[in-house]
Design brief:
Shape: globular
Number of strands: 2
Mean pLDDT: 81
Order of helices and strands: EHEHHHHHHHHH
Helix content: 55-70%
Radius of gyration: 21 Å
Distance between the termini: 36 Å
Structural class: mainly alpha
Number of helices: 10
Length: 186
C-alpha cells in the first residue's frame, strides 16, 4: 500500500505567541513523525530559528527580493490615489521620506504594510495633508496587534459599533454553519 506524502507550510514562526524554542520543538516533532512529511517554515531572521534550520535545506528569500516586492507593492497601492500623486508633485522630498518610513516601520510584514497604506489612502481622500500623514505614520506601532488596536481606537464610534456588529454576525453565521453540519463546537 502506498504511503501518503504530506507537505506542511507554516509562515510567520516569529509571530507565534510562544517562546521560539517551543515553536522549534513543535516543528521538529512534526518533522520527525514520518519521513513522508515535509515541512516548509518561514520566519524573520531570528537566531533561534536560524540555529534550528542550519543543517537543513533552506532558502533565504530576503537575499533574493531585497524588499523590492514591498517597494513595488507600496508604489502600486498609491498609484491610483490622485491626492497622493498631488502630494508627490508638491512635496517630493516629504513623500519619499514618508514612503521610506512606512516601508521601514513594516519590518517586512506585508499585512502591516497593507493596513497602513489603506489607512493613509483613506486619510488622503478625507482631506489630510502631508504633515497629517507623517504624524499618522510616526504614531502607529510597528507590531501588528498593536496596530489593529490603535486603528480600532481611532475609528469613530458609529463605524466601530457597526464593525462590532459585523464581527458578531460573522461569528454567529460560522457557529450556525457548524451546528448545521454537526461539527463539534468549542
Amino acid at each position: 500500500m502506498d504511503k501518503i506524502c504530506l507537505a506542511i507550510f507554516v509562515d510567520g514562526l516569529d509571530e507565534f505567541d510562544t517562546r521560539p524554542p517551543d515553536v522549534v520543538k513543535l516543528v521538529e516533532s512534526l518533522a520527525s513523525t514520518d519521513r513522508h512529511v515535509k515541512i516548509c517554515v518561514a520566519s524573520r531572521l531570528w537566531i533561534e530559528f536560524d540555529d534550528a534550520c542550519r543543517d537543513v535545506p533552506n532558502l533565504q528569500m530576503h537575499k533574493h527580493t531585497a524588499n523590492d516586492d514591498m517597494a513595488v507593492f507600496v508604489r502600486e497601492r498609491f498609484r491610483p490615489c490622485r491626492g497622493f500623486s498631488d502630494f508627490q508633485h508638491a512635496y517630493p522630498t516629504e513623500t519619499t521620506e514618508l514612503l521610506k518610513d512606512v516601508h521601514e516601520k513594516s519590518n517586512g510584514v506585508f499585512i502591516w504594510l497593507k493596513i497602513m497604506i489603506d489607512a493613509l489612502i483613506l486619510s488622503v481622500t478625507e482631506g489630510c495633508g502631508i504633515r497629517d500623514l507623517q504624524e499618522i505614520v510616526a504614531s502607529l506601532p510597528s507590531d501588528i496587534n498593536d496596530l489593529y488596536n490603535s486603528l480600532w481606537a481611532r475609528t469613530p464610534e458609529k463605524p466601530r459599533k457597526r464593525g462590532a456588529m459585523l464581527l458578531r454576525l460573522s461569528a454567529t453565521v460560522v457557529l450556525a454553519y457548524k451546528l448545521a453540519r454537526g461539527v463539534a463546537c468549542r
